Protein backbone atom coordinates (compact mmCIF):
# COMPACT_ATOMS: atom_id res chain seq x y z
CA UNK A 1 0.00 0.00 0.00
CA UNK A 2 1.13 3.56 -0.69
CA UNK A 3 3.25 5.07 2.09
CA UNK A 4 0.77 7.90 2.51
CA UNK A 5 -1.89 5.38 3.57
CA UNK A 6 0.08 3.89 6.46
CA UNK A 7 -2.05 5.51 9.14
CA UNK A 8 -5.34 4.64 7.43
CA UNK A 9 -4.35 1.03 6.72
CA UNK A 10 -3.13 0.54 10.31
CA UNK A 11 -6.38 1.95 11.73
CA UNK A 12 -8.53 -0.10 9.34
CA UNK A 13 -6.71 -3.34 10.16
CA UNK A 14 -6.63 -2.61 13.90
CA UNK A 15 -10.31 -1.72 14.26
CA UNK A 16 -11.53 -4.42 11.84
CA UNK A 17 -9.60 -7.29 13.39
CA UNK A 18 -10.32 -6.02 16.92
CA UNK A 19 -14.05 -6.09 16.16
CA UNK A 20 -14.02 -9.60 14.70
CA UNK A 21 -11.76 -11.15 17.33
CA UNK A 22 -13.47 -9.21 20.13
CA UNK A 23 -16.81 -10.72 19.09
CA UNK A 24 -15.28 -14.20 18.91
CA UNK A 25 -13.82 -13.74 22.38
CA UNK A 26 -17.23 -12.69 23.74
CA UNK A 27 -18.88 -15.73 22.16
CA UNK A 28 -16.22 -17.92 23.77
CA UNK A 29 -17.09 -16.28 27.13
CA UNK A 30 -13.70 -14.54 27.27
CA UNK A 31 -13.10 -10.80 27.81
CA UNK A 32 -13.26 -8.80 24.56
CA UNK A 33 -9.81 -7.36 25.24
CA UNK A 34 -8.33 -10.83 24.64
CA UNK A 35 -9.54 -10.43 21.05
CA UNK A 36 -8.03 -6.95 20.85
CA UNK A 37 -4.65 -8.28 21.99
CA UNK A 38 -4.76 -11.10 19.44
CA UNK A 39 -5.64 -8.58 16.73
CA UNK A 40 -2.45 -6.71 17.58
CA UNK A 41 -0.38 -9.91 17.43
CA UNK A 42 -1.77 -10.72 13.96
CA UNK A 43 -0.90 -7.31 12.47
CA UNK A 44 2.38 -7.00 14.35
CA UNK A 45 5.83 -7.33 12.80
CA UNK A 46 6.43 -10.78 14.30
CA UNK A 47 3.64 -12.63 12.44
CA UNK A 48 3.19 -13.16 8.66
CA UNK A 49 0.76 -11.14 6.56
CA UNK A 50 -0.15 -7.49 6.83
CA UNK A 51 2.10 -5.49 9.19
CA UNK A 52 0.78 -2.31 10.78
CA UNK A 53 2.90 0.63 11.84
CA UNK A 54 3.87 -0.11 15.44
CA UNK A 55 5.02 3.42 16.22
CA UNK A 56 1.82 4.98 14.88
CA UNK A 57 -0.31 2.51 16.84
CA UNK A 58 1.57 3.29 20.04
CA UNK A 59 1.12 7.03 19.57
CA UNK A 60 -2.59 6.59 18.88
CA UNK A 61 -2.94 4.40 21.97
CA UNK A 62 -1.42 7.23 24.01
CA UNK A 63 -4.39 9.36 22.91
CA UNK A 64 -6.62 6.72 24.44
CA UNK A 65 -4.68 6.89 27.70
CA UNK A 66 -5.07 10.70 27.78
CA UNK A 67 -8.82 10.61 27.10
CA UNK A 68 -9.37 7.84 29.62
CA UNK A 69 -7.51 9.64 32.39
CA UNK A 70 -9.31 12.87 31.49
CA UNK A 71 -12.62 11.07 31.96
CA UNK A 72 -11.52 9.70 35.32
CA UNK A 73 -10.52 13.19 36.43
CA UNK A 74 -13.99 14.44 35.50
CA UNK A 75 -15.49 12.09 38.10
CA UNK A 76 -12.73 12.23 40.71
CA UNK A 77 -12.60 15.23 43.02
CA UNK A 78 -9.58 16.59 44.86
CA UNK A 79 -11.32 15.51 48.07
CA UNK A 80 -11.50 11.94 46.76
CA UNK A 81 -7.78 12.03 46.07
CA UNK A 82 -6.91 13.42 49.49
CA UNK A 83 -9.27 11.03 51.28
CA UNK A 84 -7.32 7.95 50.17
CA UNK A 85 -3.81 9.33 50.67
CA UNK A 86 -3.43 7.40 53.92
CA UNK A 87 -3.55 4.08 52.06
CA UNK A 88 -2.61 5.03 48.48
CA UNK A 89 0.67 6.79 49.26
CA UNK A 90 2.35 4.23 51.56
CA UNK A 91 0.68 1.32 49.82
CA UNK A 92 1.80 2.23 46.29
CA UNK A 93 5.38 3.04 47.31
CA UNK A 94 5.87 -0.10 49.39
CA UNK A 95 4.17 -2.31 46.79
CA UNK A 96 6.37 -0.88 44.01
CA UNK A 97 9.47 -1.48 46.13
CA UNK A 98 8.43 -5.07 46.85
CA UNK A 99 7.60 -5.85 43.19
CA UNK A 100 10.83 -4.21 42.02
CA UNK A 101 12.82 -6.31 44.48
CA UNK A 102 11.09 -9.51 43.30
CA UNK A 103 11.67 -8.75 39.61
CA UNK A 104 15.26 -7.62 40.18
CA UNK A 105 16.02 -10.67 42.31
CA UNK A 106 14.65 -12.94 39.58
CA UNK A 107 16.69 -11.27 36.81
CA UNK A 108 19.91 -10.93 38.83
CA UNK A 109 19.85 -14.20 40.74
CA UNK A 110 18.47 -16.57 38.08
CA UNK A 111 19.31 -15.02 34.71
CA UNK A 112 22.57 -13.35 35.73
CA UNK A 113 21.73 -9.84 34.53
CA UNK A 114 23.70 -6.96 35.99
CA UNK A 115 22.17 -4.96 38.83
CA UNK A 116 21.10 -1.96 36.72
CA UNK A 117 19.24 -4.08 34.17
CA UNK A 118 17.65 -6.11 36.96
CA UNK A 119 16.35 -3.00 38.73
CA UNK A 120 14.87 -1.57 35.52
CA UNK A 121 13.18 -4.91 34.79
CA UNK A 122 11.78 -5.12 38.33
CA UNK A 123 10.51 -1.55 38.18
CA UNK A 124 8.73 -2.33 34.89
CA UNK A 125 6.85 -5.15 36.63
CA UNK A 126 5.84 -2.96 39.57
CA UNK A 127 3.56 -0.43 37.84
CA UNK A 128 0.00 -1.19 36.70
CA UNK A 129 -1.63 -0.15 33.44
CA UNK A 130 -3.92 2.88 33.55
CA UNK A 131 -6.16 1.62 30.75
CA UNK A 132 -6.60 -1.91 32.09
CA UNK A 133 -7.34 -0.76 35.63
CA UNK A 134 -9.88 1.87 34.63
CA UNK A 135 -11.64 -0.35 32.09
CA UNK A 136 -11.95 -3.10 34.71
CA UNK A 137 -13.32 -0.73 37.38
CA UNK A 138 -15.76 0.95 34.97
CA UNK A 139 -17.12 -2.33 33.58
CA UNK A 140 -17.96 -3.48 37.12
CA UNK A 141 -19.25 -0.09 38.31
CA UNK A 142 -16.49 0.06 40.92
CA UNK A 143 -14.79 3.25 39.74
CA UNK A 144 -16.75 5.55 42.07
CA UNK A 145 -16.85 3.22 45.07
CA UNK A 146 -14.48 3.48 48.00
CA UNK A 147 -12.41 0.56 46.70
CA UNK A 148 -12.30 2.16 43.26
CA UNK A 149 -11.09 5.48 44.67
CA UNK A 150 -8.33 3.70 46.56
CA UNK A 151 -7.22 1.88 43.38
CA UNK A 152 -7.21 5.12 41.34
CA UNK A 153 -5.37 7.01 44.07
CA UNK A 154 -2.83 4.17 44.19
CA UNK A 155 -2.45 4.50 40.41
CA UNK A 156 -1.83 8.26 40.64
CA UNK A 157 0.97 7.68 43.19
CA UNK A 158 2.50 5.04 40.90
CA UNK A 159 2.39 7.48 37.97
CA UNK A 160 4.16 10.15 40.01
CA UNK A 161 6.81 7.65 41.12
CA UNK A 162 7.37 6.55 37.51
CA UNK A 163 7.77 10.16 36.37
CA UNK A 164 10.61 10.50 38.87
CA UNK A 165 12.11 7.15 37.80
CA UNK A 166 12.11 8.09 34.11
CA UNK A 167 13.84 11.39 34.87
CA UNK A 168 16.47 9.74 37.07
CA UNK A 169 17.34 6.80 34.80
CA UNK A 170 19.70 8.74 32.47
CA UNK A 171 21.45 10.26 35.51
CA UNK A 172 21.85 6.93 37.27
CA UNK A 173 23.11 5.28 34.07
CA UNK A 174 25.88 7.88 33.78
CA UNK A 175 24.47 9.25 30.52
CA UNK A 176 22.71 12.25 31.96
CA UNK A 177 24.15 15.21 33.77
CA UNK A 178 26.28 13.06 36.02
CA UNK A 179 25.76 11.24 39.29
CA UNK A 180 26.88 14.27 41.30
CA UNK A 181 23.70 16.10 40.31
CA UNK A 182 21.36 13.36 41.55
CA UNK A 183 19.99 15.38 44.47
CA UNK A 184 19.51 18.41 42.22
CA UNK A 185 17.69 16.27 39.64
CA UNK A 186 15.34 14.81 42.23
CA UNK A 187 14.60 18.23 43.72
CA UNK A 188 14.02 19.76 40.29
CA UNK A 189 11.63 16.98 39.31
CA UNK A 190 9.62 17.26 42.53
CA UNK A 191 9.42 21.05 42.17
CA UNK A 192 8.25 20.70 38.56
CA UNK A 193 5.48 18.29 39.56
CA UNK A 194 4.44 20.54 42.45
CA UNK A 195 4.40 23.56 40.12
CA UNK A 196 2.23 21.68 37.61
CA UNK A 197 -0.29 20.64 40.29
CA UNK A 198 -0.40 24.20 41.66
CA UNK A 199 -0.95 25.73 38.20
CA UNK A 200 -3.76 23.28 37.41
CA UNK A 201 -5.54 23.70 40.75
CA UNK A 202 -5.19 27.47 40.95
CA UNK A 203 -5.17 28.73 37.35
CA UNK A 204 -6.68 25.80 35.46
CA UNK A 205 -9.67 25.54 37.80
CA UNK A 206 -10.74 29.04 36.76
CA UNK A 207 -9.53 29.23 33.16
CA UNK A 208 -10.70 25.89 31.76
CA UNK A 209 -14.40 26.15 32.83
CA UNK A 210 -14.45 29.76 31.54
CA UNK A 211 -13.17 28.64 28.11
CA UNK A 212 -15.78 25.87 27.88
CA UNK A 213 -18.47 28.37 28.88
CA UNK A 214 -17.47 30.60 25.97
CA UNK A 215 -17.63 27.65 23.59
CA UNK A 216 -20.98 26.55 25.00
CA UNK A 217 -22.45 29.99 24.32
CA UNK A 218 -22.07 29.34 20.57
CA UNK A 219 -24.64 26.53 20.83
CA UNK A 220 -22.49 24.24 18.69
CA UNK A 221 -22.21 20.66 19.93
CA UNK A 222 -19.40 20.06 17.45
CA UNK A 223 -17.32 22.91 18.88
CA UNK A 224 -17.99 21.77 22.45
CA UNK A 225 -16.78 18.24 21.65
CA UNK A 226 -13.73 19.71 19.93
CA UNK A 227 -13.02 21.94 22.94
CA UNK A 228 -13.28 18.95 25.32
CA UNK A 229 -10.87 16.80 23.30
CA UNK A 230 -8.50 19.73 22.78
CA UNK A 231 -8.46 20.40 26.52
CA UNK A 232 -7.73 16.78 27.37
CA UNK A 233 -4.97 16.24 24.80
CA UNK A 234 -3.57 19.78 24.77
CA UNK A 235 -3.18 20.03 28.52
CA UNK A 236 -1.71 16.53 28.72
CA UNK A 237 0.92 17.25 26.08
CA UNK A 238 1.60 20.72 27.50
CA UNK A 239 2.10 19.29 30.99
CA UNK A 240 4.58 16.73 29.64
CA UNK A 241 6.49 19.37 27.66
CA UNK A 242 6.59 22.13 30.28
CA UNK A 243 6.68 20.24 33.57
CA UNK A 244 8.01 16.81 32.61
CA UNK A 245 5.03 14.87 34.01
CA UNK A 246 3.41 11.99 32.12
CA UNK A 247 0.65 12.72 29.61
CA UNK A 248 -1.66 10.44 31.60
CA UNK A 249 -1.14 12.50 34.74
CA UNK A 250 -1.58 15.75 32.81
CA UNK A 251 -4.90 14.58 31.36
CA UNK A 252 -6.07 13.39 34.78
CA UNK A 253 -5.52 16.81 36.35
CA UNK A 254 -7.20 18.49 33.36
CA UNK A 255 -10.34 16.48 34.12
CA UNK A 256 -9.91 17.08 37.84
CA UNK A 257 -10.01 20.86 37.51
CA UNK A 258 -12.99 20.70 35.16
CA UNK A 259 -14.90 18.37 37.47
CA UNK A 260 -16.33 21.16 39.64
CA UNK A 261 -17.69 23.10 36.66
CA UNK A 262 -21.21 22.83 35.27
CA UNK A 263 -19.88 21.09 32.15
CA UNK A 264 -18.24 18.03 33.70
CA UNK A 265 -21.06 15.58 32.88
CA UNK A 266 -21.43 16.87 29.34
CA UNK A 267 -17.67 16.77 28.75
CA UNK A 268 -17.56 13.17 29.97
CA UNK A 269 -20.46 12.22 27.70
CA UNK A 270 -19.05 13.94 24.61
CA UNK A 271 -15.61 12.32 24.94
CA UNK A 272 -16.90 8.80 25.72
CA UNK A 273 -16.99 7.38 22.13
CA UNK A 274 -13.45 8.58 21.44
CA UNK A 275 -12.24 7.16 24.78
CA UNK A 276 -13.64 3.74 23.95
CA UNK A 277 -12.24 3.67 20.41
CA UNK A 278 -8.72 4.74 21.37
CA UNK A 279 -8.70 2.43 24.38
CA UNK A 280 -9.16 -0.47 21.95
CA UNK A 281 -6.11 0.80 20.06
CA UNK A 282 -4.10 0.58 23.26
CA UNK A 283 -4.68 -3.18 23.51
CA UNK A 284 -3.97 -3.65 19.80
CA UNK A 285 -0.70 -1.71 20.18
CA UNK A 286 0.34 -3.97 23.07
CA UNK A 287 -0.33 -7.04 20.95
CA UNK A 288 1.79 -5.64 18.10
CA UNK A 289 4.84 -5.57 20.38
CA UNK A 290 4.59 -9.28 21.18
CA UNK A 291 7.00 -11.77 19.61
CA UNK A 292 5.49 -15.27 20.02
CA UNK A 293 8.94 -16.87 19.73
CA UNK A 294 9.65 -15.90 23.35
CA UNK A 295 7.10 -18.53 24.45
CA UNK A 296 9.15 -21.25 22.75
CA UNK A 297 12.64 -19.95 23.42
CA UNK A 298 12.22 -18.94 27.09
CA UNK A 299 8.98 -20.46 28.48
CA UNK A 300 10.26 -20.66 32.07
CA UNK A 301 11.37 -17.03 32.03
CA UNK A 302 7.91 -15.98 30.77
CA UNK A 303 6.22 -18.02 33.51
CA UNK A 304 8.47 -16.49 36.15
CA UNK A 305 7.71 -12.97 34.89
CA UNK A 306 3.97 -13.65 34.93
CA UNK A 307 4.27 -15.12 38.44
CA UNK A 308 5.85 -11.91 39.76
CA UNK A 309 2.99 -9.87 38.25
CA UNK A 310 0.06 -12.11 39.14
CA UNK A 311 1.25 -13.69 42.39
CA UNK A 312 4.06 -11.64 43.92
CA UNK A 313 2.70 -8.18 43.24
CA UNK A 314 -0.88 -9.21 44.02
CA UNK A 315 0.09 -10.74 47.36
CA UNK A 316 2.20 -7.72 48.30
CA UNK A 317 -0.61 -5.25 47.53
CA UNK A 318 -3.26 -7.30 49.32
CA UNK A 319 -1.10 -7.80 52.42
CA UNK A 320 -0.35 -4.08 52.60
CA UNK A 321 -4.04 -3.16 52.46
CA UNK A 322 -4.82 -5.62 55.26
CA UNK A 323 -1.94 -4.27 57.35
CA UNK A 324 -3.45 -0.80 56.98
CA UNK A 325 -6.64 -2.19 58.60
CA UNK A 326 -8.90 -2.23 55.56
CA UNK A 327 -11.39 -5.06 55.00
CA UNK A 328 -10.74 -8.20 52.96
CA UNK A 329 -12.91 -6.97 50.06
CA UNK A 330 -10.76 -3.85 49.70
CA UNK A 331 -7.56 -5.91 49.85
CA UNK A 332 -8.79 -8.29 47.13
CA UNK A 333 -10.05 -5.48 44.87
CA UNK A 334 -6.84 -3.47 45.08
CA UNK A 335 -4.66 -6.57 44.69
CA UNK A 336 -6.48 -7.72 41.55
CA UNK A 337 -6.53 -4.17 40.17
CA UNK A 338 -2.73 -4.10 40.22
CA UNK A 339 -2.21 -7.64 38.90
CA UNK A 340 -1.20 -6.43 35.43
CA UNK A 341 1.29 -4.14 33.72
CA UNK A 342 1.06 -1.83 30.72
CA UNK A 343 2.04 1.46 29.15
CA UNK A 344 4.54 2.75 31.70
CA UNK A 345 6.33 -0.60 31.61
CA UNK A 346 6.85 -0.25 27.84
CA UNK A 347 8.04 3.35 28.19
CA UNK A 348 10.54 2.20 30.81
CA UNK A 349 11.76 -0.64 28.57
CA UNK A 350 12.15 1.74 25.63
CA UNK A 351 14.26 4.14 27.69
CA UNK A 352 16.27 1.24 29.09
CA UNK A 353 17.05 0.04 25.58
CA UNK A 354 18.07 3.51 24.39
CA UNK A 355 20.47 3.77 27.34
CA UNK A 356 21.77 0.20 26.76
CA UNK A 357 20.78 -0.71 30.30
CA UNK A 358 18.81 -3.87 29.53
CA UNK A 359 19.38 -6.97 27.35
CA UNK A 360 17.19 -7.42 24.22
CA UNK A 361 15.06 -10.20 25.75
CA UNK A 362 13.94 -7.93 28.62
CA UNK A 363 11.39 -6.11 26.46
CA UNK A 364 9.99 -9.39 25.08
CA UNK A 365 9.56 -10.75 28.61
CA UNK A 366 7.80 -7.59 29.80
CA UNK A 367 5.45 -7.58 26.78
CA UNK A 368 4.69 -11.29 27.30
CA UNK A 369 3.95 -10.61 30.96
CA UNK A 370 1.74 -7.68 29.99
CA UNK A 371 -0.32 -9.66 27.50
CA UNK A 372 -0.89 -12.62 29.82
CA UNK A 373 -1.71 -10.42 32.83
CA UNK A 374 -4.02 -8.13 30.82
CA UNK A 375 -5.87 -11.11 29.37
CA UNK A 376 -6.33 -12.73 32.78
CA UNK A 377 -7.18 -9.55 34.71
CA UNK A 378 -10.96 -9.54 33.96
CA UNK A 379 -11.15 -13.18 35.04
CA UNK A 380 -9.39 -12.33 38.30
CA UNK A 381 -11.87 -9.50 38.90
CA UNK A 382 -14.76 -11.91 38.37
CA UNK A 383 -13.36 -14.15 41.08
CA UNK A 384 -12.96 -11.49 43.78
CA UNK A 385 -16.37 -11.83 45.42
CA UNK A 386 -16.60 -15.67 45.14
CA UNK A 387 -13.08 -15.90 46.59
CA UNK A 388 -13.96 -13.58 49.46
CA UNK A 389 -17.03 -15.66 50.36
CA UNK A 390 -15.08 -18.92 50.03
CA UNK A 391 -12.25 -17.68 52.25
CA UNK A 392 -14.63 -16.33 54.91
CA UNK A 393 -16.59 -19.58 54.93
CA UNK A 394 -13.57 -21.83 55.36
CA UNK A 395 -11.06 -19.74 57.30
CA UNK A 396 -11.56 -18.76 60.93
CA UNK A 397 -8.53 -16.48 60.63
CA UNK A 398 -10.13 -14.65 57.68
CA UNK A 399 -13.39 -14.23 59.60
CA UNK A 400 -11.47 -12.88 62.56
CA UNK A 401 -9.63 -10.53 60.23
CA UNK A 402 -12.88 -9.30 58.70
CA UNK A 403 -14.53 -8.85 62.09
CA UNK A 404 -11.50 -7.47 63.92
CA UNK A 405 -11.87 -4.78 66.49
CA UNK A 406 -12.66 -1.74 64.39
CA UNK A 407 -14.40 1.25 65.99
CA UNK A 408 -16.41 1.81 62.80
CA UNK A 409 -17.76 -1.75 62.77
CA UNK A 410 -20.21 -1.04 65.59
CA UNK A 411 -22.40 1.89 66.51
CA UNK A 412 -21.12 4.26 69.22
CA UNK A 413 -22.41 3.59 72.74
CA UNK A 414 -24.04 7.02 72.84
CA UNK A 415 -26.30 6.35 69.83
CA UNK A 416 -29.79 7.45 70.96
CA UNK A 417 -32.44 4.74 71.45
CA UNK A 418 -34.82 6.69 69.21
CA UNK A 419 -32.50 5.99 66.24
CA UNK A 420 -32.72 2.24 66.85
CA UNK A 421 -36.47 1.62 66.96
CA UNK A 422 -38.45 1.11 63.77
CA UNK A 423 -35.50 2.44 61.81
CA UNK A 424 -34.63 2.04 58.14
CA UNK A 425 -31.43 0.07 57.56
CA UNK A 426 -29.92 1.44 54.36
CA UNK A 427 -27.29 -0.72 52.64
CA UNK A 428 -25.04 1.37 50.42
CA UNK A 429 -24.51 5.12 50.50
CA UNK A 430 -23.65 5.88 46.88
CA UNK A 431 -25.60 8.34 44.73
CA UNK A 432 -28.91 6.50 45.21
CA UNK A 433 -28.37 5.90 48.93
CA UNK A 434 -27.37 9.52 49.52
CA UNK A 435 -30.46 10.82 47.71
CA UNK A 436 -32.72 8.47 49.70
CA UNK A 437 -31.07 9.49 52.96
CA UNK A 438 -31.80 13.15 52.17
CA UNK A 439 -35.43 12.39 51.27
CA UNK A 440 -36.10 10.45 54.48
CA UNK A 441 -35.15 13.50 56.53
CA UNK A 442 -35.51 12.95 60.26
CA UNK A 443 -36.72 9.33 60.09
CA UNK A 444 -34.51 6.95 62.13
CA UNK A 445 -31.95 5.42 59.79
CA UNK A 446 -28.77 3.35 60.06
CA UNK A 447 -26.41 3.13 57.08
CA UNK A 448 -24.30 0.05 56.32
CA UNK A 449 -21.43 0.61 53.91
CA UNK A 450 -18.11 -1.10 53.11
CA UNK A 451 -16.39 2.21 52.38
CA UNK A 452 -14.47 3.45 55.42
CA UNK A 453 -14.44 7.07 54.19
CA UNK A 454 -18.23 7.07 53.73
CA UNK A 455 -18.82 5.78 57.26
CA UNK A 456 -16.36 8.25 58.76
CA UNK A 457 -18.06 11.14 56.95
CA UNK A 458 -21.53 10.04 58.11
CA UNK A 459 -20.34 9.64 61.70
CA UNK A 460 -18.78 13.12 61.61
CA UNK A 461 -22.12 14.53 60.46
CA UNK A 462 -23.91 12.87 63.38
CA UNK A 463 -25.56 10.01 61.45
CA UNK A 464 -25.70 6.37 62.54
CA UNK A 465 -23.44 4.30 60.27
CA UNK A 466 -21.72 0.92 60.45
CA UNK A 467 -18.70 -0.27 58.47
CA UNK A 468 -19.11 -3.80 57.15
CA UNK A 469 -20.71 -6.27 54.75
CA UNK A 470 -24.49 -6.43 55.04
CA UNK A 471 -24.48 -10.10 54.03
CA UNK A 472 -22.73 -10.88 57.34
CA UNK A 473 -25.03 -11.45 60.33
CA UNK A 474 -22.70 -9.60 62.72
CA UNK A 475 -22.87 -6.42 60.63
CA UNK A 476 -26.68 -6.56 60.60
CA UNK A 477 -26.70 -7.12 64.36
CA UNK A 478 -24.56 -4.00 64.82
CA UNK A 479 -27.14 -2.07 62.76
CA UNK A 480 -29.85 -3.38 65.18
CA UNK A 481 -31.72 -5.09 62.36
CA UNK A 482 -33.98 -6.85 64.87
CA UNK A 483 -35.66 -3.50 65.71
CA UNK A 484 -35.80 -2.24 62.11
CA UNK A 485 -38.95 -1.80 60.00
CA UNK A 486 -37.26 -1.61 56.60
CA UNK A 487 -34.18 -2.93 54.86
CA UNK A 488 -33.43 -0.82 51.78
CA UNK A 489 -30.61 -2.04 49.55
CA UNK A 490 -29.16 0.71 47.35
CA UNK A 491 -26.67 -1.59 45.65
CA UNK A 492 -25.51 -1.71 42.03
CA UNK A 493 -25.26 -5.51 41.88
CA UNK A 494 -28.65 -6.96 42.86
CA UNK A 495 -27.29 -10.51 42.80
CA UNK A 496 -26.23 -10.03 46.45
CA UNK A 497 -29.78 -9.16 47.57
CA UNK A 498 -31.24 -12.67 48.25
CA UNK A 499 -28.37 -13.68 50.55
CA UNK A 500 -28.54 -10.38 52.45
CA UNK A 501 -32.31 -10.62 52.82
CA UNK A 502 -32.19 -14.26 54.00
CA UNK A 503 -29.67 -13.37 56.73
CA UNK A 504 -31.65 -10.28 57.78
CA UNK A 505 -34.95 -12.17 58.07
CA UNK A 506 -33.38 -14.79 60.29
CA UNK A 507 -32.83 -11.92 62.74
CA UNK A 508 -36.11 -10.11 61.99
CA UNK A 509 -38.78 -12.28 60.30
CA UNK A 510 -41.19 -9.36 59.84
CA UNK A 511 -38.66 -7.11 58.11
CA UNK A 512 -39.83 -5.37 54.95
CA UNK A 513 -37.41 -4.92 52.08
CA UNK A 514 -37.15 -2.54 49.10
CA UNK A 515 -34.74 -2.67 46.14
CA UNK A 516 -34.35 -0.86 42.82
CA UNK A 517 -34.12 -3.13 39.76
CA UNK A 518 -32.73 -2.09 36.41
CA UNK A 519 -34.64 -4.54 34.18
CA UNK A 520 -37.99 -6.36 34.25
CA UNK A 521 -36.12 -9.67 34.54
CA UNK A 522 -34.30 -8.42 37.64
CA UNK A 523 -37.59 -7.19 39.10
CA UNK A 524 -39.26 -10.57 38.63
CA UNK A 525 -36.27 -12.44 40.10
CA UNK A 526 -36.11 -10.17 43.15
CA UNK A 527 -39.83 -10.51 43.74
CA UNK A 528 -39.50 -14.29 43.69
CA UNK A 529 -36.60 -13.98 46.17
CA UNK A 530 -38.95 -12.40 48.73
CA UNK A 531 -38.37 -8.66 48.27
CA UNK A 532 -41.56 -6.81 49.27
CA UNK A 533 -41.14 -3.79 47.01
CA UNK A 534 -39.16 -3.83 43.78
CA UNK A 535 -38.96 -0.53 41.93
CA UNK A 536 -37.95 -0.34 38.28
CA UNK A 537 -35.52 2.59 37.92
CA UNK A 538 -36.88 3.91 34.61
CA UNK A 539 -40.49 3.27 35.60
CA UNK A 540 -40.05 5.12 38.92
CA UNK A 541 -38.47 8.06 37.09
CA UNK A 542 -41.34 8.12 34.56
CA UNK A 543 -43.93 8.10 37.35
CA UNK A 544 -42.18 10.97 39.12
CA UNK A 545 -42.09 12.99 35.90
CA UNK A 546 -45.76 12.23 35.28
CA UNK A 547 -46.67 13.56 38.74
CA UNK A 548 -44.75 16.75 38.01
CA UNK A 549 -46.48 17.25 34.65
CA UNK A 550 -49.94 16.46 36.09
CA UNK A 551 -49.53 18.86 39.01
Strand content: under 5%
CATH class of the largest domain: Mainly Alpha
The count of strands amounts to: 6
Largest sheet: 6 strands, parallel
Q: Count of helices? A: 25
Overall helicity: 55-70%
For the record, give the distance between the C-alpha atoms at the N and C termini, rounded to a whole number: 66 Å
- Unreliable spans: none
User: What would you say the CATH architecture of the largest domain is?
Assistant: Up-down Bundle
Biggest sheet, strands in spatial order?
3-2-1-4-5-6
Count of discrete structural domains? 2
The rounded Rg comes to 25 Å
pLDDT averaged residue by residue: 82
What's the CATH topology label of the largest domain? Na+/H+ antiporter like fold
Derived from helix and strand composition plus strand pairing, the structural class reads mainly alpha
Describe the global form.
Answer: globular
Folded structure, characterized:
It is a single chain. The chain is mostly helical. The chain has 2 domains: 54-393, Na+/H+ antiporter like fold (Up-down Bundle), CATH 1.20.1530; 411-550, 3-Layer(aba) Sandwich (Rossmann fold). The chain has helices at residues 6-27, 32-42, 54-74, 78-83, 85-109, 115-126, 130-139, 146-172, 182-216, 221-243, 247-258, 264-288, 293-297, 299-323, 328-337, 343-354, 360-382, 384-394, 396-402, 431-440, 452-460, 473-478, 497-507, 520-528, 537-550, and strands at residues 424-427, 445-449, 464-467, 486-489, 512-517, 533-536. Strands 3-2-1-4-5-6 form a 6-stranded parallel β-sheet, sandwiched between helices. Helix 2 (32-42) crosses helix 12 (264-288) and helix 3 (54-74) runs antiparallel to helix 12 (264-288). It is globular and about 70 Å long.
Amino acid sequence: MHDGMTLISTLAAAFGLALVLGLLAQWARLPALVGYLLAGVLIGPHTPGFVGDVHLAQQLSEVGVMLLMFGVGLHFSVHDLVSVKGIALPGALVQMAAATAMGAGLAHGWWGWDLGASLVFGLALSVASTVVLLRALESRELLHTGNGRIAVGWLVVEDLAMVLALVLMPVLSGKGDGGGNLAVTILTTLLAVAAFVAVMLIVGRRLLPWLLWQVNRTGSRELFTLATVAAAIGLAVGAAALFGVSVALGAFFAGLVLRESAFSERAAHESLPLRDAFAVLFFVAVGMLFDPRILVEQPLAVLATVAVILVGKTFAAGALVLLLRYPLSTALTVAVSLAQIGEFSFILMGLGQSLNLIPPEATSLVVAGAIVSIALNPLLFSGVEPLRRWVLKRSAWARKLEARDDPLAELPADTPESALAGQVVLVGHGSLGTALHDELGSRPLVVIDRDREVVEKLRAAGHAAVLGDASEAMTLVQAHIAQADWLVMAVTDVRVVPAMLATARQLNPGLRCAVVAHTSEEAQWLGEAGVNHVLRSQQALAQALARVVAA
